[in-house]
Write a structure and sequence with these properties.
alpha/beta, D-Maltodextrin-Binding Protein, domain 2, globular, 2 domains, 17% strand, 41% helix
Amino acid sequence: MRISRSATGNVLACLFLLLFALPLQLAEAQRAGNSYEEKKRQTNDIAVTIVTSGLTCTCARFAEDMRNVVNDLRPDGLRVLPVLGVGGLQNVNDVLFMKGIDMGVVDEDNLRLLKKRDPQLYANLEQRIQYITKLYNSEFHVVARNEIATYEDLRGKKVSFNLKDSQTEVTADIIFNALKIDVQRVNYDNDEAIKKLREGEIAAMIILSGAPQAALAKLKKEDQVHFLALDRQSLPNRDLQPIFADYLPAEITHEHYPSLIPEGASVATIANRALLVVYAWPENSVRYKKVGKFVQEFFGKIDQFHSAARHPKWKEVNLAAEIPGWTRFKPAAEWLAAHQTVAMRNPGNTAGQSPAELRVAFDQFVETRAGLSRQKTLSAREREALFTQFMQYLESQGAGRPAR
């Protein structure tokens, strides 16, 4: 039987494919597969997530600043991924239950509120979620039409409590219940609330956020709106002690909102402390180690956040601040113990002063500026509020500038 040349050529071609070409293709495909898996592993190994609220929230700007300063995209580096969440109690739930979330920005009162809402589900919440550091104070902004002089004038009127289940709504609910002022509660995002406030469809809008709040920069005196004060002078017949027991005294100033507050003037309000929190991963787990690495990088570069290019609220960051009722994430506590001088000189970029010098200056400030005797016992909240004022005072006197 004779075999044609073409048939012989086909057989040889098949043999070539089997013996040489196909193994080469398989090896190339395997190398590509290994490269893909390695890249995927590296990408996930260096990533940590931080859930925040909306884009205009101070917490979103803080997360962006952390990303810009801490990011190191090398295979053994660290990548910070900000995630837009709902805010408020939902951020706590996201840290607690959502698989892809490592950290979140939440407010101090969240533990207390969640345990009150569902004691069984959140019974051991302080063991499951821990705080890394206090970030900044979130001021309680109430912007009202000019015909509204005080909170009392809002009774029966339409007031936007921000989005449903947001931190603003949670805190506003507490404040208005404590004041026993019933209003028609509506839920609008910041932009929609501003539009309806300008048009007179609502009497006031509320935002709990670090001042200055980006969305409120859109408002001007020509819009016929102003900030409402929350203090004993504006509400003389109200017992505000329960409110000040849980929140810090604060103020909104001309520097925050020059279009709404005259130069040299301020509006009294309250504030909630915003915290950076983390899920309590088991020690030595992959997620625990990644967040621990983030803490080392974040805390170690804290001076870089005092640049004028960063949000002014970074001056309020107090790495060493203790938060009653919360447990500190162990890597954060260990870093603070090993770097006491750095922890003491923040916030305010007071790099030229020792802890002892700061302590003497603070005691003098308490006596001369706050009108308090050194013998008076201050609560943790009172001391935190005074310390924030103290650091602002140092900045105004030039003492907060870094040594050259």
